[in-house]
Each structure stands twice: as C-alpha cells, then as structure tokens.
Design brief:
Largest sheet: 3 strands, parallel
Keywords: Membrane, Transmembrane, Transmembrane helix
Protein name: Epidermal retinol dehydrogenase 2
Organism: Bactrocera latifrons
CATH class of the largest domain: Alpha Beta
Shape: globular
CATH superfamily of the largest domain: NAD(P)-binding Rossmann-like Domain
Distance between the termini: 41 Å
GO molecular function: oxidoreductase activity, acting on the CH-OH group of donors, NAD or NADP as acceptor
Number of helices: 12
Strand content: 5-15%
InterPro entries: NAD(P)-bd_dom_sf, SDR_fam
Mean pLDDT: 84
Structural class: mainly alpha
Low-confidence stretches: 133-139, 284-289
Length: 289
C-alpha cells in the first residue's frame, strides 16, 4: 500500500558520505527546534481559545461508520453525529442493540444504516464493508488515500497506555489498538496523506456497566454522554490524541520518567488501582435498551 524507501532517503540513513549526513542532521535538528517552538505555541493558543471562536470541522453529509454502535458510548455517538447531519452507519454484533439505536435516532427525527457485524470475523467484515460502500460510503482507506481525505478514529483506553490489574487480556488488546493507530498515522503522514486525519481516544473507566463493581479512588467513572460529546469535539477539532479526563494525560508519561519502584508506589498506594479493580464483578452482555 505504501511505497519503498527512495534512494535519496537511503543516503540519509547510511554513512556513505559522512559529511553530508552530519550536515543534514544538523539542519534537520534546527528545523525541528523551530517547528517544535511553533507547534508548542500553537497548542497553547488553541488550548486557551474557546470553542465558539475556533473553526470546527463540519461533518454534515459525511459518512460516519461506528463499530459497536448498538449500545453505550457508540449509541450516543450515533445520535451526536446524526444531530450534526452526518450519514451514520452502525455496526454491532447484537441485532437488538442495532434496532434500539436506529429507533433512538428515529424518535429524534434522524435515520441511520445498521448492520450485524462480528468484527472478529474477517469475511463478515469485508462483506459488510462492501455492502456499505455500494450503498453510501464508497470509501475506506484506499479511497481515503486516493482522495487524501477522511478521518479515522480509534477508541483505545487508558488501559492501553498503563497496564491494569485484572485486565491482562483487555489491556493487551488496547495496547494493540494504540500501536496500530500510531503506526498507521506514521505511514500516512510519511507518504504525504495529510488530508486524512486520525484521532486516538483513550478514556478512563466509563460508567456503562463494563467495569461493574469497580470503585476508583482518585477519579470518578466517566459518564457515557460526556465521553460521546468529547469524542465528537475531538473529531471536529482534529485532535490527534484525546485522553479522558484530561488530568489522566498528565500521569501517563510518569511511567517513563519516574523510577519503576516510584511508579508502583504511585499506582498501588496513592491511586490504589489494583484494589479498586479487585471489586470488579465482571461484565455481562450490553443491554439492547
């Protein structure tokens, strides 16, 4: 999908001409420092600028595919995007949940397409993707690349940045989500697809019943509507990385900056993460209603 490295780039990565490589490195470092200063100032500016003064992305008429849109945050996202006049497509493994989402949108005067899809079934994913393309999307990544336009949103988790007690399997899948997202972002930007935006969403515990029984010490569980609203806002702002709540974002780099034993004391004694997860009662099937 992406091209091989060019001869000019190979010259930069090998010491065939040491002087050229060193001078190019110095130049790249200077350019980096200038851009880093500008981008940092830009981030501070936009962080302080109220939303009503910002130019937000218009998603009206755009196709929005929501996997897991039959319940929880996915259902609220479907309604949020429908209110923005987007063309909403919902995938879920639960047909009753899909119907409930479609009924919710209908009661609010909106419509959406819904398909039963088990995203662990590769053949089914491609079958439904083709069906969706034929009806309204006519996209997905190759078409996005052809048009240099689109927006890919990956819903990860804080457990995909920090290992969590009792969540080895779940945490592993979320780490995979984060790695996939960041690698794809690197591929697209390296090959000049700057028109394809990518947003990584990493929320804290969400009060949808998924972590039933868990009682966090430091931060309360997030309300699903808040998460859905922030995801929509992040997309409209073209945010690259959205951690919910924002205060958690300050903590995540500490695992690389602090000594390992200090990190463990912070997690186990101050945050009491393992103890809060010990109250986890398990998750049943997400209700359709």
């Amino acid at each position: 999908m992406f091209g091989a490295i060019s001869t000019s780039l190979q010259r930069l990565l090998h010491m065939d001409n040491p002087l050229y490589v060193i001078l190019q490195f110095i130049w790249d470092l200077l350019v980096f420092l200038v851009k880093a200063t500008y981008f940092t100032a830009e981030t501070i500016y936009y962080s302080l600028l109220p939303n009503y003064l910002r130019k937000m992305k218009n998603v009206s008429g755009q196709v929005v595919l929501i996997t897991g849109g039959g319940g929880g945050v996915g259902r609220l996202l479907a309604l949020n995007f429908a209110k923005q006049n987007a063309r909403v497509v919902v995938w879920d493994i639960n047909p009753e949940a899909i119907k409930t989402t479609m009924d919710l949108l209908a009661r609010n005067g909106y419509t959406c397409k819904g398909y039963v899809v088990d995203i662990s079934d590769r053949d089914q994913v491609y079958e439904r993707a083709a069906q969706t393309i034929n009806e309204i999307v006519k996209a997905f990544l190759p078409q996005m690349m052809q048009n240099n336009r689109g927006h890919i949103v990956t819903v990860g988790s804080v457990t995909g940045m920090l290992g969590t007690y009792g969540c080895s399997d779940y945490s592993a899948t979320k780490f995979a989500c984060v790695g996939f997202h960041e690698s794809l972002l690197t591929d697209l930007k390296t090959h000049g697809y700057d028109g394809i935006h990518m947003t990584l969403i990493c929320p804290y515990y969400i009060n949808t019943g998924m972590f039933s029984g868990v009682r966090p010490r430091m931060f309360p569980m997030l309300h699903p509507q808040y998460v859905a609203d922030r995801i929509l806002e992040a997309i409209q702002k073209n945010e690259v990385w959205c951690v919910l709540p924002h205060t958690i974002r300050v903590l995540t780099p500490l695992k690389c900056l602090l000594p390992a034993k200090v990190c463990w004391e912070l997690m186990s004694r101050v945050i009491r993460g393992p103890e809060s997860m010990m109250m986890f009662q398990g998750r049943g099937r997400v209700p359709a209603g």
